[in-house]
Each structure stands twice: as C-alpha cells, then as structure tokens.
Design a protein that fits this description.
single chain; Beta-Lactamase; disordered N terminus; Rossmann fold; 6-stranded mixed beta sheet; disordered C terminus; Helix Hairpins
C-alpha cells in the first residue's frame, strides 16, 4: 500500500452479485470525508456481469483482464478478490506489483458476513427505534443545520396532514410557516439559531397555524447533536401540543379574574353600605347633639318669655318688675348668642368653605387675634409672652380662617389657665428651613389634658368643658382649616403643667414640599400618636 497518501484505493476482481452488493453499499458513502477507501475499478472477464454493469453506470473503470489493475496510472493500493474460482488468488499473488496488497476471497467473505450480521442488528434496532418514535404522540423531527428536515415521526405527519415525501428534504419553515424564507427576529426568532448561539438545548412555547387554519400552542424542545469538531451536525426537534393545557390555564385565569372582580365588587358594595351606615350613624349623633345643645338655651328663653308674660298679665309693672325683666332679657340675650355660636361653629365644621387664599403674615394675624382676646386673657389672669421671629416668610392662606384657628387656641388656653387662677400664654413663631415651613407654637400653663383624652382631642363634639360652655367643635374646625392649608397641627399636654399646640404651614417659596406627617399628632406624657 502506498505510504504517500492516507487514502486506500481499491480494485475489485470478480463482477458477480457480491460485487454489485458491495458497490451499492459503499459508493453511496464514498464521498464522505471519513470514508478513506474508495473503489475505483472492477475487473471481470464477463462485461455484462451485475458488478461490471453497475460499475459502468457509476463511472468506475472496468477491465476484462485483472492485470490491467496493476498499471501505475490506476493507483490501486488494494485488490479484493470476490470470486471463489481456484487459481485467481495464486495468479494475482504471483503477478501483482509489490506495492499492491491482496485480500483473498475467504478472508473477505469472513469479514463481509460479520459486517452483514452487524448490519442486520442495526436494521432491527433501527426498526425498533422507528416503532418507538412513531408511537410517541409528541412531534419529533431531525433537522440539519441548513434547516432541512431529514426525518419525521408519524404523529407529526398525521397532524400536519402531509406524507413523508412531502416533508423529507424540505425546510422546516416551509412546513411550519408555509414561508419561503427563514424565521427572523421581528416575527418569530428561529429556535435553531438560539441553540447554536447558546451552545445548549432550549425549550420554549410557540404558536403555530395548522394547514386548516387552526391555531395551536406547542412546547418546543430542541437538542443539538455535535460532530467531533464541535460543530452541530443535526437538531432533534421535539414538539408537544399544549393547546388544551394552555386553554385550561386561560380558563382558570379567566375564572380567577372573574372571581376577583366579583369579590372586589362585593367588597366595594359592602364598603359603601358600611360608609352609608357610618354616615347615617354620625348624622344621627350630630343631630342628637345639636338638638340637645340648642334645646337647652331655647328652653331657657321660652321659660323666661312665658314667665315675663305671666308677670305682665298678673300685675302692673313697676320699677322692680322692669329691673327683673332687664335681667331676664340679659339672660335671653346670652342664651341667644350661645345658640348662634353653636350654629356658627356647626356650619363652619360642616362646610369649611374654601376661602380665597393670598399671602398672609403670621405674626400680624397673631397680634390681631391677641388684641381681640386681650380682655378675655385679662379676665383669666393670663399674661402673654411673644416670641415671634422677625422677617419670617409669609404663607399662602385665608387670613380669616387662620385667625379663627388662633381665636380657638387662645380662648381655650385662657379658659385652661383661668381654672388655675392665671398663667402665661407663650406664642412662638419661626421659620423652619429644613421643613420649608413656618412653625407656630401656642403654649399655656393651664390645667392640661389627661392622656386618656388626647386621642379624641380633635374629634367633633368632644369637649372637657362644663355643660353649656362649648360643644367641642373649635379644635375640629381648627384641624380642618390647617389641613386645608396643607399644614399639620399637633398637641402635647401634661396634666397640671399645661398644653402645647404646634402648627406648621408651608412657607411661601417652599410649597413644593409640605411638612412631613400631614395630619394631626396628639402628644401627652408619654408621647402618643393619634394620626
């Protein structure tokens, strides 16, 4: 055998049925790069023998004299003897050039029979695998890197309504998408490309349109098979129809969404009913409280009117009776004013109309309110300690409403200190740049508020005053006004030492950030949060 090349060139001697069988099984793979022993010539004295005829059709060299295989131009490295005729082996052995090797008929027959047995086993295994694959209901394809289908199982062919001849050799996108171009990223990225890019198998869900127009969903798994050089030689493409499962999931999702929607609607209706009941309950309490508070002064006025009518009817009015009538009129005036105050506070609480806002100066409002309440504070024996920071920023708000807030706080402080025989009302106002706010603190040295009452301090109609002195709307109104101005109001109190109210309002130019903790905080000792 020549040592100048790794290719073994073979010549066959004997053109019978065995020769034709060998040519049929070997020439189909002779072009494969791993097959390194091509058959190039056949020699037989009978030109019409099966092997000679097939060799001629295959374009191989044919000779009637096997000695022509010895010629150097034929390049024969190995002669395989396929005829059992006696003397052929001895003649070739005696006449061949030294460079040509010989494989005798008995030896080749031994190898060929062993190969045939292995071939039969492979055929049986192949049939078993085909039966197994065709029995699987999943769709199984074998696809080459150029996207050609080289194998398909029966389940796939039946589902697609195609024959094997209509599928084998065609491109996968021609079968699946009825298209003449590969899948692209804008439509549906090719899973085969993803396998190559990721160097591993992939699994994904794909939507496909069947020939009859039906839309189905498939779970697609693609496994690459590699050559020795690491290149992908084939793809195993497995599809599982999950349309029914997908539809069941969609139905379950739809039912869950419907249940959530129904439950949400029920909760909303229940919430609205509870709100309505709560509003009606609050309205009932409000009405009962208002009726009770207004009934007292009206009953007093009515009694005085009836008394005055009886006196005037029974006797002549003298100086004593006229003086008595004056006292009655004073009482009637007091009760009438109290009724008016109750109604005004109630209207302010219920409506709290949005007043026209403008730039207002907090120290100026404080001074005006102190002037109005000067007599009240003097009667309560309360001095005033002003600590108003000069040059403070203004705030945007309603001067009348903010004055009403301070009126309520100052009058409450005066009453609390009067109960202790006097005290000091300290009023602080300063700019807090970090919070972008103006802070006002109203501090009294009165009797204080018990810790148990602090959480209810700003509730409507809650009051610790004696009967007839108030209805508990002042702080509620103050809270609503401060909240409407985007600010906060909080309270701290220690029984026997006094109470501090702290108000924060956004400063002009700082409106983009409100003070933290919008709402109300009530604090006692220890500090307690209400809102």
């Amino acid at each position: 055998m020549s040592t100048s090349s790794s290719v073994i060139t073979i010549g066959l001697v004997g053109g019978g049925e065995l020769c034709a069988e060998i040519l049929q099984k070997t020439t189909s793979v002779s072009a494969h790069e791993e097959f390194r022993a091509p058959i190039v010539a056949v020699a037989d004295p009978e030109p019409t023998s099966p092997g000679m005829a097939l060799a001629g059709r295959l374009g191989l060299a044919t000779f009637t004299d096997y000695r022509q295989l010895y010629e150097a131009r034929q390049g024969i490295d190995l002669i395989i003897i396929l005829t059992p005729e006696p003397g052929v082996f001895e003649n070739i052995l005696a006449t061949r050039p030294a460079r040509i090797r010989i494989l005798s008929y008995p030896v080749f027959q031994l190898f060929w029979q062993a190969i045939g047995r292995e071939e039969q086993k492979l055929r049986e295994r192949t049939r078993e695998m085909e039966t197994l694959v065709n029995g699987i209901q999943d769709f199984i394809l074998v696809i080459t890197p150029d996207m050609s289908i080289i194998e398909a199982n029966e389940a796939f062919l039946q589902k697609m309504g195609l024959s094997r001849d209509q599928v084998i050799g065609r491109k996968c996108y021609q079968i699946y998408r009825r298209a003449e171009h590969p899948c692209n990223k804008t439509e549906d990225e090719c899973p085969l490309r993803l396998v190559v890019q990721n160097q591993r198998h992939i699994r994904r869900i794909q939507k496909r349109h069947l020939p009859d127009g039906e839309v189905r969903y498939y779970e697609v798994s693609i496994y690459p098979l590699y050559e020795k050089e690491g290149k992908v030689s084939k793809f195993i493409h497995i599809s599982r129809d999950i349309t029914q499962h997908r539809r069941e999931e969609e139905e379950i999702t739809r039912r869950l969404e419907q249940m959530v929607e129904d439950r949400t609607r029920q909760l909303r209706e229940t919430h609205e009913k509870l709100l309505h009941q709560d509003r009606m309950s609050s309205l009932g309490k409000l009405a009962a409280t208002v009726v009770h508070e207004i009934n007292n002064p009206i009953a007093g006025i009515l009694n005085l009117v009836m008394l005055m009518k009886r006196i005037s009817a029974e006797q002549t009015l003298g100086a004593q009776e006229i003086e008595q009538f004056r006292r009655y009129l004073d009482l009637m005036e007091t009760e009438t004013r109290r009724t008016s105050r109750i109604v005004s506070n109630l209207l302010a609480f219920s409506r709290q109309p949005i007043a026209e806002k403008q730039r207002v100066n907090i120290p100026q409002i404080i001074e005006q309110t102190l002037l109005i309440n000067a007599n009240l504070l003097k009667i309560a024996g309360a001095g005033v300690d002003r600590r108003l920071e000069p040059g403070m920023p203004e705030v945007i708000g309603s001067e009348d409403q903010l004055q009403q807030v301070f009126m309520n706080l100052f009058s409450n402080a005066a009453e609390a200190m009067e109960a202790k025989g006097g005290g000091t009302l300290r009023i602080e106002a300063a700019h807090e740049p970090d919070l972008k706010a103006v802070a006002i603190r109203v501090v009294d040295t009165g009797v204080g508020v018990p810790a148990a009452n602090m959480p209810r301090l700003f509730e409507p109609f809650f009051t610790t005053k004696k009967k007839g002195q108030g209805v508990g709307l002042g702080l509620s109104v103050a809270y609503g006004i401060i909240q409407e101005h985007g600010g906060t109001i909080s309270a701290q109190s220690v029984v026997g030492e006094g109470t501090t109210f702290t108000i924060r309002l956004p400063a002009v130019g700082d409106a983009d950030r409100r003070p933290a903790g919008k709402g109300v905080r009530h604090e006692s000792q220890p500090d307690t949060d209400r809102r």
